[in-house]
Design brief:
heterodimer, A: 552 residues, mainly alpha, 64% helix, 3% strand, globular, B: 665 residues, alpha+beta, Calcium-transporting ATPase, cytoplasmic transduction domain A, Rossmann fold, 8-stranded antiparallel sheet, 7-stranded mixed sheet, 16% strand
Chain lengths: 552, 665
């Protein structure tokens, strides 16, 4: 638990000033670095034909976001299909099948990074850079832009310009941060080279060919952008991706950095410095509680093994270099921030341990992904305000703006999406032979695998529980779920932000529902958990809970 | 028996064509139908499936019954109103003379002129064109003293259908078409016939529908998941789980809460023109209150004559008396009475003397005699300006006298004769009792009170301080009121006000909640969204409390309904899954007797909670004005915490009962 406390403390220490910086960049007329970045931004905007970054309404903003993402995903799809005919392919990775290319393009443009391919054999270093790393940046910048715009709307500001936001997110946030993290990773021994293959003499005296490449730059954006895809199949358990306990901490910190910063950006935008702490505390309480369950389950170990005279915690699938806390905390952070990189095997978690990453992806807001996590937390707050706000004797308002039928309709659509995308596809997969074929475990564990795969796809997380996913059914179904988990809710929430922004804000008085109180913090955390539990309790009961209850 | 009558209506409402307006209940009906089918045709038999099906039907019926009961309450009141509106005949004038033909009142159209004489029932809402008469308005207002009606004056020229002329006669112009009168509107509203869901209700319905869809998804996906595990689930159990999870409680009570809120307003004799207005009252955070009539009784009584300059008291009294004799206002009469007390009796004026009535623009009244004597009394600055205009000077001790009266909270009336200022009449204003406490309550609720008065700043400040309003607007004009409303609204506030005059109409229309007085003019009533039939402006405070109580009731029931799901999951899910997946026995933390008894007790609880909460829905939850923090803490603990705990206890008790009765396996 000490490791977790240090991690959250460091994330706050980084997040508070970064939140302020993001506020200056996206909300204030002047920001540090304007002097030499403004001309670059103006140049880039002119290049794509934007003379003056005008304010878009939600439809135009959404169209620009969808158009840009669609274009980039298509580019990625074509490159992945054709990589066999393209240069810088020393191991001769063939072009991907249509469904694997679709899945991969969808996966990386949606910030999910679910990988149904093996990094070592099925993808060329060119694709790693031009498709994977490129889309990791693009999806992170898209997420950040969407989150910023949503904050603009709910705080009553014009929605801004997608192109300008996208460029600023890359130029002023993701690139400098990636550079910094890359250098730190290189200092720890993470390779950063254009040489794809290295010969190494092993202790036994044999010759081994090692795959390397631009891994540090890959890793930095993978975590900063809550992406999560691995350069290697072993992901962050691979020593080239994650060589030391320090890089392990750095990865976790990178995942939480921007999602937590955005809460403070929101506080600045809402002119209320107490609000970030409400959202931070509500999410942190859930995060800490679930991490406690996970750590306890793994620490206690498997009672069936204990019976056989093998005592001790559950070490199966753990990365011993990082120890029990290091790996368990990574499980919590990577599913909480919906990153999806792994430094241990989630399929080997104890049943109670499995419920934790599952539940975090189902809640999708325990800090959540870059930009969208903040949107999800604020959505939960809006819903909570609507449910309990009446009990102070006023029609519900969020930051002074009334939540009325139009807003509620949009909110209702948003809260329907997540359970829809998890429960229905899971039910379909478990009913079809094509679905069951991909599962690598029977009964409860098999059900959990399917549930996990779709929860991970819908939450745009990307981690898995070890299914054999490179099959048409799984590639197409998870590809669709990733797309539907990403874009409809962004568009609906932008519409919601636009609708709220046009309302007159009532000033805060003694009769208004205050959000910046411990009481509301508690209610928000409780409602978040309750709604998640009501949606997914039966499904969890038939998977991990049934397994947990079967243990002696 | 209203309960039985309501039950009949409730059965009629089971018709899906009606029930589609309440989609949550409609799906319960669908579930009941499906369960009935399962019980009759596919089930292995036994009484259990039939019992579940029956309970589901009872659940829907209790849901529609809740609404019918609220409507029945309204109907009872509508009936008593309708009795006052027997079919009357009207003397419709033809041509320019007093010739009339007798026609049914229902044939009158807007613009028609009718004659009413002593004993006649006024056939339609209208405006007095000619004549003077006393009218008994007790049928509408409950006020037994007849009211004087005459043309011209703002307030007294408006008459209401169903009231009765006691003496003399009037010629009226009909202002509304049949079916549009206030009585008609009120009857329709309390009957619930024209009730549209308010925006907040609509939003809540959307949320309830979304939750229903989510739970439908949750329950329907259980089958394929279970089938993958090699288990077969019983549809009856699934339907029961679904009905228990969806927010049936609030869906059943939602419209009853709204109708009951309107009824509560109606019981205060306030006619709200929409449910939206009542809700808006709950949201109001700025109140513009007229001092006169709302904060004070409005009968300012002359208490003292204060001569100024070198004039004597008698000189002042004589002039004051002469300007007051023709003045029929309570103030005027009180001056005459005080003069009489001082031994000065009114005399006759010479023929040709003209009385100048008080006007809001001049803020003076007075008297011009044929021999050129001009007397004025009125607001200090107005009279001073008038005197200066005549070339007179202001006595040095006038200011002190005016200030002394103002500071004491009184109204100074300055009396002038030509270019001479004679002195000041001290009018004392009586503040209504208990207002100070209510304003303090309002402040706690976050409602700011602004007192509007035509008095000068000093007087206004004194009274404001005495009664404890937050702010005041002195020397107010209708335009100033409008500006203030606009200002407050631009700052995001919701504003309520009361008014009765035609010049209040624009402000009443602009305000978020405008409460017009029944005694007020037709334009004022049309501009407002509520009309107080007792013409008591203080009722605005009650209306706000009712609005808040309505919203809290709705919120409390919603929270309660959703919180109930926790216990229901723990009751039903093991019952549904354990027979197929024995490992899940660990979820049965309530240790219910058997799967069948668990289902029966959960469904029974879900059904019984509806009638158990009907009284709360109709009466509204207890509401004591306090800060939002205190309200939230109390209500979340009571309805959120209670909503989680109560069903655990309730279902467990019912389970013991069901097991004891032996109806479940």
């Amino acid at each position: 638990m000490l490791g977790m406390a240090i991690l959250l403390l460091l994330a706050l220490l980084l997040g508070i000033p970064t939140g302020r910086y993001l506020y200056l960049v996206f909300f204030a007329p002047k920001a540090p670095g304007d002097g030499w970045l403004r001309p670059v931004e103006t140049f880039l905007l002119r290049l794509i034909g934007v003379r003056e970054p005008y304010d878009m309404d939600w439809k135009v903003y959404s169209a620009a976001l969808l158009g840009a993402n669609g274009f980039m995903a298509l580019l990625g799809y074509v490159l992945l299909r054709q990589q066999g005919n393209l240069p810088w392919n020393p191991l001769g990775a063939p072009g991907m099948s249509w469904h694997l290319a679709f899945n991969t393009a969808a996966s990386f443009i949606t910030n999910t990074n679910l990988q149904h391919y093996a990094g070592e054999t099925q993808i060329s270093p060119l694709s790693q850079m031009a498709v994977i790393t490129f889309l990791m940046h693009a999806s992170a910048a898209t997420g950040l832009a969407a989150g910023i715009t949503f904050i603009r709307g709910v705080t009553g500001r014009p929605l801004g310009n997608f192109w300008s936001d996208f460029i600023k997110a890359s130029l002023r946030v993701l690139w400098p941060a990636s550079l910094l993290v890359s250098l730190l990773l290189v200092s720890q021994g993470v390779p950063q080279t254009f040489t794809a293959l290295r010969e190494a003499h092993t202790l036994e005296g044999t010759l081994q060919t090692l795959l390397t490449g631009p891994i540090a730059s890959f890793e930095s954006i993978k975590h900063l952008g809550t992406n999560g895809g691995g350069y290697f199949s072993a992901n962050a358990a691979h020593p080239f991706e994650n060589p030391t306990p320090f890089t392990n901490l750095l990865h976790m910190l990178s995942m939480l950095w921007i999602p937590i910063s955005l809460l403070f950006t929101f506080g600045d935008a809402a002119r209320n410095r107490r609000l970030p702490w409400v959202f931070f505390s509500a999410a942190a309480v859930i995060f800490v509680g679930l991490y406690g369950i996970l750590l306890h389950a793994e620490d206690a170990g498997d009672p069936l093994l204990h019976r056989l005279g093998i005592p001790g915690p559950n070490w199966e699938g753990k990365e011993v270099r990082f120890g029990m806390e290091g790996t368990s905390l990574f499980v919590s952070v990577t599913t909480g921030a919906t990153t999806g990189s792994v430094d241990s095997a989630h399929g080997s978690l104890m049943p109670w341990g499995q419920t934790v990453p599952l539940l975090q992806m189902m809640l999708n807001s325990i800090f959540g992904g870059i930009g969208v996590g903040t949107m999800n937390l604020l959505t939960m707050a809006l819903l909570t305000v609507f449910l309990i706000g009446l009990m102070v004797g006023r029609t519900p308002e969020f930051l002074g703006r009334k939540v009325e039928p139009r807003e509620m309709t949009l909110l209702a659509a948003v809260i329907l999406i997540h359970p829809l995308l998890i429960l229905i596809p899971t039910a379909v997969a478990l009913s079809l032979p094509q679905g069951i074929e991909g599962l690598t475990a029977p009964t409860f564990q098999g059900l959990t695998q399917a549930l996990y795969e779709f929860a991970s796809s819908a939450a745009n997380n990307g981690s898995g529980m070890g299914i054999d996913g490179d099959q048409a059914f799984w590639n197409v179904s998870t590809g669709l779920v990733m797309l539907l988990g990403r874009y409809p809710s962004i568009v609906l929430l932008l519409a919601l932000a636009d609708s709220l922004r046009k309302k007159r804000a009532a000033p805060l008085g003694p009769g208004s529902l205050r959000l910046d109180t411990p009481l509301f913090t508690g209610i928000l955390a409780f409602m978040t958990l309750l709604l998640g539990a009501l949606n997914f309790f039966p499904a969890l009961a038939m998977g991990p809970l049934a397994q947990a209850l079967m243990l002696p | 028996m209203p309960y039985l009558g309501a039950l009949k209506v409730a059965i009629v409402k089971l018709n899906p064509l009606y029930l589609w307006r309440n989609p949550v209940l409609l799906t319960v009906e669908g579930g009941a139908l499906w369960a009935t089918y399962e019980a009759l045709f596919t089930s292995a038999g036994g009484s259990f499936p039939l019992l579940v099906a029956a309970l589901l039907w009872i659940t829907v019926l209790l849901g529609t019954w809740a609404e019918s009961l609220a409507e029945a309450q309204g109907k009872a009141r509508a009936e008593s109103l309708r009795r006052t509106r027997q079919e009357t005949t009207a003397k419709k004038l033809v041509g320019d003379h007093r010739d009339y033909e007798t026609v049914p009142a229902s044939s009158l159209r807007k613009g028609d002129r009718v004659l009413v004489e002593a004993g006649d029932i006024i056939p339609a809402d209208g405006t007095v064109l000619e004549g003077i008469a006393t009218v008994d308005e007790s049928a509408i207002t409950g006020e037994s003293a007849p009211v004087l009606k005459e043309p011209g004056t703002d307030v007294a020229s408006s008459v209401t259908a169903g009231t009765q002329v006691v003496s003399d006669w009037l010629i009226l112009q009909v202002d509304v078409n049949p079916g549009d009168s206030y009585l008609d509107k009120m009857i329709r509203l309390v009957e619930g016939a024209t009730r549209k869901p308010t925006p907040n209700e609509q939003a809540l319905q959307v949320l309830l529908l979304a939750l229903t869809l989510i739970f439908a998804m949750v329950v329907l996906t259980l089958w394929p998941l279970a089938r993958y595990l090699g288990a077969q689930l019983d549809p009856i159990y699934g339907i029961a789980l679904y009905v228990c999870l969806i927010p049936t409680t609030i869906a059943a009570l939602l419209s009853a809460v709204g109708i009951a809120g309107m009824n509560r307003v109606a019981r205060y004799n306030v006619l709200a023109l929409s449910g939206r207005a009542v809700e808006a009252a709950g949201d109001v955070d700025v109140l513009l209150l007229d001092k006169t009539g709302t904060i004070t009784y409005g009968h300012r009584m002359a208490a003292q004559f204060i001569p100024v300059g070198n004039h004597g008291e008698m000189e002042l009294i004589a002039a004051a008396l002469r300007t007051s004799v023709p003045d029929e206002t309570p103030e005027g009469r009180s001056i005459v009475a005080l003069a009489r007390e001082k031994g000065v009796l009114p005399g006759d004026e010479a023929p040709g003397t003209t009385f100048i009535p008080f006007a809001a623009e001049t803020r003076m009244s007075g008297l011009d005699t044929p021999d050129g004597l001009r007397l004025r009394k009125g607001a200090a600055d107005a009279v001073a300006a008038w005197v200066r205009e005549q070339g007179g000077t202001i006595p040095p001790d006038l200011d002190a006298a005016v200030e002394r009266v103002s500071r004491a909270g009184g109204t100074p009336l300055v009396v002038a004769q030509g270019e001479d200022i004679l002195g000041v009449i001290y009018l004392k204003d009586t503040v209504k009792e208990g207002l100070k406490e209510r304003f303090a309550e309002l402040r706690k609720m976050g409602v700011k009170t602004v007192m509007c008065t035509g008095d000068n700043r000093l007087t206004a400040a004194t009274i404001a301080k005495e009664v404890g309003v937050d702010e005041y607007l002195a020397e107010v004009t209708p335009e100033a009121k409008m500006d203030r409303i606009r200002q407050e609204q631009e700052a995001g506030h919701l504003v309520a006000m009361t008014g009765d005059g035609t010049n209040d109409a624009p402000a009443l229309a602009l305000a978020d909640v405008g409460l017009a007085m029944q005694s007020g003019t037709q334009p004022a009533k049309e501009a407002a969204n509520m009309v107080d039939l007792d013409s008591d402006p203080t009722k605005l405070l009650d209306v706000i409390a009712i609005g808040k109580q309505l919203l809290i009731t709705r919120g409390a029931l919603t929270t309660f309904s959703i919180a109930n799901d926790v216990a229901k999951y723990f009751a039903i899910l093991p019952a549904l899954l354990v027979p197929a997946i024995p490992a899940l026995e660990g979820l049965n933390i309530m240790h219910l007797h058997s799967p069948q008894s668990a289902i029966l007790s959960a469904v029974l609880f879900n059904a019984l909670i509806i009638p158990a909460l009907i009284p709360m829905a109709l009466r509204g939850v207890r509401y004591r004005p306090s800060s939002s923090q205190a309200l939230l803490l109390r209500n979340i603990a009571l309805y959120g915490g209670g909503g989680i705990l109560l069903p655990f206890a309730g279902i467990k008790l019912l389970d013991i009962l069901v097991a004891a009765l032996g109806v479940a396996a």
